[in-house]
Automatic annotation (TrEMBL):
Recorded GO MF terms: transaminase activity
InterPro entries, alphabetized: DegT/StrS_aminotransferase, PyrdxlP-dep_Trfase, PyrdxlP-dep_Trfase_major, PyrdxlP-dep_Trfase_small
Pfam families named in the record: DegT_DnrJ_EryC1 (PF01041)
Entry annotated with the keyword Transferase: yes
Protein name: DegT/DnrJ/EryC1/StrS aminotransferase
Protein keywords: Aminotransferase, Pyridoxal phosphate, Transferase
Length: 420
């Protein structure tokens, strides 16, 4: 157990953890059920193309979120691309820059211009008050992102979309298992898109889904994800791609679905421990979740106010990484500062003050079933020690970080094969 700054690995002490603690370690369901289903799949010799596990998975998810259609996909990014295309979005689409880059890329990939909008600093989701002034005659839609599983201001977005006859799509990559007004995410807007990547609290290996209550849209999406095949052999009636979920992914999903109550309970307990252990630390705030709603508690996100802590977010990330705690700076630096967007819109940051601020202050910490309560207490102790350093110790910290970078140390977080 670390007790003071001399114990910090950044100053040469042994790291707190031998094995790296990650943000986004997959939650794994019952292995026996998993292997049984694999055997079943192999015996059946049906591995893809709308197999029985995919059909069962789609039905279970649709029931769980209370939506007419769930169309399983090979990943969340392709699901976004297909949803965007099926909704016939073109020209310009308004979305937050404070999201994973896949949201913007899914538009740009189809030569649709992403128009970045600022977020509400309290919720980290797209700020409806900023949207209307970004609407032009070329605007065809809005994409809201339920960042950290906290729902967007859905009613305000619906109202703006209705008034301007825009399509409304939600990137619900973080939002599986969460609700708004008692209604599960997945059933809002024209459609919602989930990611079931291993870093999400519920995973299918790789995977995603589009959820919608629109029958015609669902039918179009089904055609699009399967090359435009009508369902009859050799009969293509639409332009399509390959967005199909495999049977292996679907059976992984079916198995993990059986454990989601447990995954959420662990996440919730982890979140509460972080909350207790970090309580009262000046300059540190832990994002909150609405206890009245269903939440998956997948993200333990801190906001660091350097004016108060004296140590900025990036310094804290380095201190944690030296301890083998791979904290992540999601979503640094913001889509508008990534290519090709930063070349297309070099001044976008001027319109995104809250996004700019958040991307330098926000930090995600490890949680999920791979992290123990004791791990969390030790992470919190490290954060407390890091923040309790006296200003004269910051010079020592700056020195340690400079030595590490001059020595050309590969960043701790790179996989072994990428280290020089
Ligand atoms: N929209 C939003 C808002 C999203 O957050 C995402 C994905 C998407 C759309 C697109 O959905 P997908 O097409 O991915 O289904 C990760 C994920 O790759 C990405 O899915 C996720 N968002 C994003 C927030 O995080 P990276 O580049 O940070 O991944 P990586 O390789 O650094 O992994 C994250 C951590 O998880 C690592 O520390 C290691 C750990 N990990 C990862 C995998 C894959 C494991 O422990 N086991 C694993 O199997 O993007």
């Amino acid at each position: 157990m670390k007790t003071n700054s001399d114990d910090l690995a950044i100053y040469g002490a042994a790291p707190a953890f031998h094995e790296t603690l990650h943000v986004g370690r997959p939650n794994i369901g019952d292995r026996k059920r998993f292997y049984e289903r694999i055997d079943d799949m192999l015996n059946r010799r049906w591995l893809s193309n709308n197999g029985p596990y995919v059909q069962e998975f789609e039905q279970r998810v649709a029931e769980m979120i209370g939506v007419r259609h769930c169309i399983a996909m090979c990943n969340g990014t392709i699901a976004l691309e297909i949803a965007i295309r099926a909704l016939e979005l073109k020209g310009e689409v308004i979305l937050p820059s404070f999201t994973f880059v896949a949201t913007a890329h899914a538009l740009q990939w189809q030569e649709i211009t992403p128009v970045f909008c600022d977020v509400d600093p309290a919720t980290h989701t797209i700020d409806p008050a900023c949207i209307e002034k970004m609407i032009t005659p070329r605007t065809t839609g809005i994409i809201g992102v339920h960042v950290w599983g906290r729902p967007c201001a859905i009613e305000a977005l619906e109202q703006i979309a209705g008034k301007h006859r825009l399509k409304l799509l939600f990137d619900a990559a973080h939002g599986f298992g969460c609700s708004r007004g008692g209604r599960m995410l997945g059933s809002f807007g024209n459609a919602e898109v989930f990611s079931f990547h291993p870093t999400k609290f519920f995973n299918t290996g790789e995977g995603g889904a589009i959820a919608t209550n629109d029958d015609a849209l669902a039918q179009k999406i089904r055609l699009m994800k399967n090359f435009g095949f009508s369902g009859k052999h050799d009969d293509v009636i639409y332009v399509g791609t390959n967005g199909k979920m495999s049977e292996l992914s679907a059976l992984t999903g079916l198995t993990n679905l059986e454990s989601i109550a447990q995954f959420i309970a662990v996440n919730c307990e982890n979140y509460e421990t972080y909350r207790e252990e970090l309580a009262g630390l000046p300059g540190i705030s832990l994002i909150s979740y609405d206890q009245q709603e269903k939440c998956n508690y997948q993200y333990v996100v801190l906001e660091i106010d350097e004016q108060v802590t004296g140590i900025g977010r990036d310094r804290l990330v380095e201190i944690l990484r030296a301890e083998n705690v791979l904290a992540r700076r999601y979503f640094y630096p913001g889509c508008h500062r990534m290519e090709p967007y930063r070349s297309y819109f070099p001044n976008a940051g001027l319109l995104l003050p809250h996004t700019e601020r958040l991307t330098t202050r926000v930090l995600s910490l490890p949680t999920g079933t791979a992290v123990s309560q004791e791990d969390i207490r030790e992470i919190c102790r490290i954060i407390r020690i890091a923040l309790s350093q006296r200003p004269e110790e910051y010079d020592r910290l700056n020195g340690s970080l400079a030595v590490a970078s001059q020595a050309g140390d590969p960043p701790q977080h790179l996989p072994v094969f990428m280290k020089g």
